[in-house]
Write a structure and sequence with these properties.
There is one protein chain. This protein has 11 helices and 5 strands, in the order H-H-H-E-E-H-E-E-E-H-H-H-H-H-H-H. The protein is an alpha+beta fold. Among the domains are: 83-153, no CATH class; 185-252, no CATH class. The strands form 2 sheets. A 3-stranded antiparallel sheet has the order 3-4-5. A two-stranded antiparallel ribbon has the order 1-2. Helix 1 (15-28) crosses helix 2 (37-49) and helix 4 (72-81) crosses helix 7. The longest helix has 20 residues, at 241-260. It is globular, with a radius of gyration of 20 Å.
């Protein structure tokens, strides 16, 4: 832990040059979630703030619900690159991950995430079955970044899947980079037509984004789904959206009260 690490410094690049680069990257067609120069430039600038190059930023930086999210690999690289911080893997297997974090060469704490944590958070699906080590590592590094070195990232940092985005469990890249507009009663009404449509994708996705954005207790879509089932809702129902949201709020508050007791 005593070796000197060189800090990566990003050059001050004129905005005009960054815009030109963003236009080239967007037009290349290799980055499906950046269809215009402006979107590409935002990702490049966000990456530049933590010392990430343009190509790495295009693949590892994403804007989800107005928040900057980073792939686990980008977080890990940023921590390793900063001369103040480091981490070491204490455990990484199909049952969980434990990382020890260092500041100034001294251990400051550990961050772990295992099957019990995933179950409590209601996390499941193909990624957790096919790539459990990757998923456990992603959650452990994200939590550790929040707890022990948030100044690298300018505040709390999240991986895309923590905010409900579908990601490739092997690469950490977003599968579908598009997000729905914020949920409003007007959105629900506009998508219902003459009768409620419980399976309407646009309304359903927007509503889940609202839940994840406003009720921080829920960390993933699966967590919301499992809680709804506990509360007696087998599926999302647009005409009961407000009641379902209120039930989720009450459930989250009850759990917080339990933990505080």
């Amino acid at each position: 832990m005593t070796e000197q690490k060189a800090q990566y410094q990003t050059a001050m690049v004129p905005l005009a040059d960054t815009m030109q680069l963003g236009d080239v990257l967007a037009k290349s067609g290799f980055f499906s979630d950046s269809r215009g120069a402006a979107q590409a430039v935002v990702k490049i600038l966000a990456g530049r703030e933590i010392g990430v190059g343009p190509i790495a930023a295009m693949t590892g930086v994403n804007i989800i619900k107005g928040r900057v999210t980073l792939s686990a690999n980008i977080m890990a690289a940023a921590i390793k690159r900063d001369p103040r911080y480091d981490y070491r893997i204490k455990r990484l297997d199909d049952d969980g991950c434990e990382l020890e974090f260092y500041e100034g060469g001294k251990a400051v704490g550990t961050s772990s995430f295992d099957k019990a944590d995933a179950k409590q958070a209601g996390l499941s699906g193909d990624n957790w079955t096919k790539y459990p080590r990757n998923m456990f590592f992603a959650r452990a590094i994200s939590n550790g970044a929040k707890w022990f070195c948030p100044d690298i990232f300018g505040g709390p940092v999240y991986t895309p899947d923590e905010l409900g985005a579908a990601v490739d469990g092997e690469t950490g890249e977003i599968i579908d980079g598009e997000t729905s507009p914020p949920w409003t009663p007007e959105v629900v009404e506009a998508n219902q037509g003459d009768a409620p449509k419980p399976t309407n994708g646009a309304v359903k996705k927007a509503w889940f984004l609202k839940v994840l954005d406003e009720i921080t207790y829920y960390r993933a879509t699966n967590h919301v789904v499992n809680t709804l089932k506990q509360l007696g809702y087998e599926a999302f129902e647009p005409d009961k959206a407000d009641a379902m949201f209120a039930a989720l709020q009450a459930h989250a508050k009850a759990k917080a009260d339990e933990e505080a007791a």
